[in-house]
């Protein structure tokens, strides 16, 4: 998949002779797979939450579970935006990088990361990142015991 990620512009995926995906590579990488056959392909190129964090992840916020975990995908000029410092300045939110980084997707830079956000204005920060990112998915809430 590294060669595909670096050089392809479009991706076609067949499963048992049936076309299940036909889209730009950037669309393929930034979105969640709808077809089960796509999950293993994307697992090779999308960041995965490390097991030690995945074990602490809950679907809903509760007492002791107040650190949001999200997958954020940025492309092009947005890749170099100072995301973490903007979150700290605008919302007073602490942001931790849990997995991911910057890569070349086709002919442009892409940032595909999993982060955690915590602080009083966490909900506002989540909305802001969701609007800024080309793709955003709230994965859940970390519980600290």
Could you explain how this protein is built, in words?
The protein is α+β, with helices and mostly antiparallel strands and 145 residues long. The chain contains 6 helices and 7 strands, in the order H-E-E-H-H-H-E-E-H-E-E-H-E. It folds into 2 domains: 45 residues, no CATH class; 92 residues, 2-Layer Sandwich (Alpha-Beta Plaits). Strand 1 and strand 2 form a beta hairpin. Helix 5 runs antiparallel to helix 6. It holds the Pfam family NIL.
In what order do the strands lie side by side in the largest sheet?
3-7-4-6-5
Judging by the overall fold, what is the CATH architecture of the largest domain? 2-Layer Sandwich
For CATH, the homologous superfamily of the largest domain is named as ACT domain
Oligomer: single chain
Distance between the termini: 38 Å
Structural class: alpha+beta
Largest sheet descriptor: 5 strands, antiparallel
What is the general shape? globular
Mean pLDDT rating: 89
Put simply, the count of helices is: 6
Q: Write the CATH fold name of the largest domain.
A: Alpha-Beta Plaits
N-to-C order of helices and strands? HEEHHHEEHEEHE
Low-confidence stretches: none
Q: Report the CATH C-level class of the largest domain.
A: Alpha Beta
Q: Kindly give the count of domains.
A: 2
Radius of gyration: 16 Å
Q: Would you report the number of β strands? A: 7
């Amino acid at each position: 998949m590294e060669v595909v990620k670096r050089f392809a512009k479009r991706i076609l995926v067949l499963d048992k002779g049936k076309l299940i995906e036909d889209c730009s590579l950037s669309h393929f990488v930034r979105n969640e797979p709808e077809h089960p056959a796509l999950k293993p392909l994307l697992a090779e190129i999308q960041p995965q939450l490390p097991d030690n964090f995945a074990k602490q992840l809950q679907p809903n916020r509760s007492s002791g579970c107040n650190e949001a975990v999200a997958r954020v995908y940025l492309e092009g000029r947005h890749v170099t935006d100072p995301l973490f410092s903007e979150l700290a300045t605008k919302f007073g939110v602490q942001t931790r990088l849990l997995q991911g980084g910057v890569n070349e997707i086709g002919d442009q830079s892409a940032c595909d990361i999993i982060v955690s956000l915590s602080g009083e204005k966490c909900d506002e920060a989540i909305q802001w990142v969701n609007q800024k990112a080309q793709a955003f998915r709230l994965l859940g809430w970390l519980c600290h015991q």
